[in-house]
Amino acid sequence: MHSSLVRRLSQERELEINVWSYSSRKLLHSIETGHSANIFCTKFVPETSDELVVSGAGDAEVRLFNLSRFSGRGLDDNAITPSALYQCHTGRVKKLAVEVGNPHVVWSASEDGTLRQHDFRQGSSCPPAGSSHQECRNILLDLRCGAKRSLADPPKQTLSLKSCDISSTRPHLLLVGGSDAFARLYDRRMLPPLTSCQKRMSPPPCVNYFCPLHLSEHGRSSLHLTHVTFSPNGEEVLLSYSGEHVYLMDVNHAGGRAMRYTVGDASKIMSFTPTLNGLELQPPIHDFLQTNIRVRGEVATGLGKCRMLVEIARNSLEEGKHPYYGIEACNEVLEGHLSGIGPMLRHECLCIRAALLLKRKWKNDAQMAIRDCYNARRIDSSSFRAHLYMSEALEQLCKYKEALDFAIAAQCLDPSNSVMAEKVENIKKHIAAAETEKNNKANDGGSRSEPRTGRVLSLSDIIYRSEANSDASQDGPRSEREDSDYDEEVEVDFHTSVPGDEGRDVEANFLHGSLNVRIHRRGDSARETVDANGSSGSPSSSSQNDRIPYQPETVIDMKQRYVGHCNVGTDIKQASFLGQRGDYIASGSDDGRWFIWEKQTGRLIKMLLGDEAGNVISIVNCVQCHPFDCVVATSGIDNTIKIWTPSASVPTIVSGGAAGPDTADVLEAMESNQKKLSRNREHSLSYELLERFHMHEFSEGSLRPFECAQS
Hints:
The chain is an alpha+beta fold.
């Protein structure tokens, strides 16, 4: 968003780009783009006086427009020929990136697995993808063999890119995210020369991987990123996941700021190790969570406030109040005043927060409780509560064997506790029941392995099985791949065809494409790809690479999590830094609201109504902060964008009036969003299919003016 302009992408059949002046609230230009599918992204090209606008769309095209050509025209005369047209992508273009101070180049990230570099000085057009003479050498990143199911798995499948960003402070740094759990940071100076699409290349080495530890080994095919972005100073990155939360990470590991891990660290922190003379013998862990466990001297400043907050959290736990309040109090202590508290107060706060997280049971709360228990045990290896809550967290994740180890350890620390004895026996019963179920499945294995003739799986069967396996609540039973009820796992990819690939004489209202179904047995490293025509294959790779053992990467872990919103309905939902220093985090949500959190503590600051499409579907997708003015723009699936300022001329449109919603309303909304996150992705699949059908049901009437609201 520039100083005087803001973009609006129309969802009408004309597929226009509307350029407004947010100060005067006037429509300046309405461009008939010529795109034949949804426009997902636009950018003003830097250093062009806001005259050049570039767009990327679901038709796999990137188009450049010169607004100066509208000089002297009326608003109704809005058809201009694009200054540049790039048709080399084979998948939807989901994100564009520009470099500050560079008016000549734009980068496009596509679901075809490539990030391309378009230099306006080298050519203004390229042949359509699939043409016999298509030799555009503009692929900067070839990630068509770059997706990873988990940290331990080598990259094999196409990484469908959903988002990209270029650092404003160090423009050689490039961040991308797509159809797996890992964001990747590249240094453009270290990348190989631009290539063509004729041959798939091995993924180039990246500077850093980013992924929360608890998401790195899930192996869920549906887990993917919808947005990645740099902070204003370029020192942090923000990741937004579909069906997940928003996470903050440090870019650099220098000085021990970033928390890093590698394969096996997730299981290490959930495993109990033997003790000698009362001291736990913990194996060395790859500097995981080191920054959270540094013991520093008590500092008087803020110590009284921290003790008061811990007391509030303790009362919340003991009096049965909603855990949210106590968790917020603990977050303030542990994230906002860590340097001012001593180890004993830190241990107390970690144990209380773990207990509250286990009581709240929002998505991944059990995983966060494990982190707190691990840190508490590093402060006090004989902590009864740390072992007790670790056992409860592992129980919630159905890791009963590990839970039993910690329950027995807690029982040894407090032998007179009758509750612990009962808990140990209950966990043993769970383990016995799981073993019985496993044996029963083994006995039925013969009938399962027989050829399944005479039955053809419908698409609904495949989708139900795939989504049920991968997106059952991960804090409940059968959340892990090894607990799947099926001997085979199924992945489904649906790709629409790009106009120009198969001729243009097809009927415009019909969706054409290919259905890719991958069926593989658990434990098989190879995956067979079967397309609609019956052919099969796998991503190309050299035999030499196959002989080299795969060495999993080291990954930078999260340092803060932002919860309360819901991101399952669309795969273009943004999370953004607010303010010149990026002190606040904002994200849209599938409930028609957008949320603002304090970056350092994760505390929810504001919840605002940003979309009024209707009672059935209300979604806020885009939240963007002005680079230096005190203005935020949001848009959803209704017909307006909204401009938010601290002093608007109309009242804010949140429940409760200018004072904001009641606390009860906030909790109700967040609880509802958490329930949506824990369900399977049936609704999100429907939304994505609507996107692929170009959403023709949107009204063709003119867009309403801006709606301004006070934040």
